[in-house]
Amino acid sequence: MRIDDCLARMMAIPGAQRVTLVDCASGLAVASAGRDDGVDQHEDAAGATDAVRSVLGSAALSATPDGDDVEEIIVCGAAGYHLLVLTGPDLDGHLFVHLVVDREKGNLALARLRMQGLVREMAVR
Questions:
Q1: How many CB atoms lie within 10 A of CB 80?
Q2: Could you write out the three-class secondary structure of the chain?
Q3: Angstrom distance (rounded) from CA 94 to CA 89
Q4: Residue 125 and residue 120: Cα distance in Å, rounded?
Q5: For residue 96, what are the β-bridge partners?
Q6: Calpha distance 26→18 (Å, rounded)
């Protein structure tokens, strides 16, 4: 499956507003899809990367010293959710997906389940 196809399937999740595939090593957006709300995809990727690095670097937020047990990070805002899903070692461990979900139109539990499946599928291909 091509990255664009995978992002399109992620955008089909109810309430999805924007999705970005991010390289955690560089903090840059690899690809993105969704609404153009004036947020630069690279600024978005850099900010999300800071959050991921902070969580992975905090022993208090991990069950293992290396932080390798963290699979996803959820940031709840007044208007929506930011779901940061780490791809794990299957995709070199340096990528994560940032999905923005509208709070009123989306369902966080459903988005999490769908994202887990789509990220696994992306890693297999």
A1: 21
A2: CCHHHHHHHHHCCCCEEEEEEEECCCCEEEEEEECCCCCCHHHHHHHHHHHHHHHHCCHHHCCCCCCCCCCEEEEECCCEEEEEEECCHHHCCCEEEEEEEECCCCCHHHHHHHHHHHHHHHHHC
A3: 8
A4: 9
A5: 22, 86
A6: 20
C-alpha to C-alpha distance for 22 and 29, rounded to whole angstroms: 5
d(CA 102, CA 16): 6
pTM: 0.89
Q: Are 21 and 31 contacting, i.e. CB atoms less than 8 angstroms apart?
A: yes
pLDDT tens-digit series, residues 5-54: 999 999 999 999 999 999 988 999 999 999 877 778 888 899 999 999 98
What are the tens digits of pLDDT across the range 77-103? Answer: 999 999 999 987 655 568 999 999 999
Phi first, then psi, for residue 100 (nearest 5°) are -100, 125
